[in-house]
């Protein structure tokens, strides 16, 4: 194995992988600043509220611009704008 370049390359790859894992663990434990439980809760609440507001905005746009079945163009609801345009046909 001492003179086999393929075996040495494999051992070097394994050693590099082990070093990579050790450095990653060291960084995650000693260098990363993790949020406190209170910070995590407030960030989560902020994301949930923003998601709900975004979903409501999309629902409102669907309502105004007409959320109808594309496969069936003769659906009753074509949105407020569709109803407005139909009044002047």
TrEMBL record:
Membrane topology: Single-pass membrane protein
Subcellular compartments: Cell membrane; Membrane
Transmembrane spans: 45-65
Gene3D superfamilies: Preprotein translocase secy subunit
Main subcellular localisation: membrane
UniProt keyword list: Cell membrane, Membrane, Protein transport, Translocation, Transmembrane, Transmembrane helix, Transport
Subunit description: Component of the Sec protein translocase complex. Heterotrimer consisting of SecY, SecE and SecG subunits. The heterotrimers can form oligomers, although 1 heterotrimer is thought to be able to translocate proteins. Interacts with the ribosome. Interacts with SecDF, and other proteins may be involved. Interacts with SecA.
General function of this protein: Essential subunit of the Sec protein translocation channel SecYEG. Clamps together the 2 halves of SecY. May contact the channel plug during translocation.
Family: Belongs to the SecE/SEC61-gamma family.
Protein name (database record): Protein translocase subunit SecE
């Amino acid at each position: 194995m001492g003179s086999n370049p393929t075996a040495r390359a494999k051992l070097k790859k394994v050693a590099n992988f082990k070093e990579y894992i050790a450095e990653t663990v060291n960084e995650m434990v000693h260098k990363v600043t993790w949020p406190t439980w209170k910070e995590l809760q407030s960030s989560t609440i902020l994301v949930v509220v923003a998601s709900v507001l975004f979903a409501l905005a999309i629902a409102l746009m669907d309502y105004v611009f007409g959320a109808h079945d594309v496969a069936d163009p003769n659906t009753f609801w074509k949105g407020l704008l569709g109803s407005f345009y139909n009044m002047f046909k």
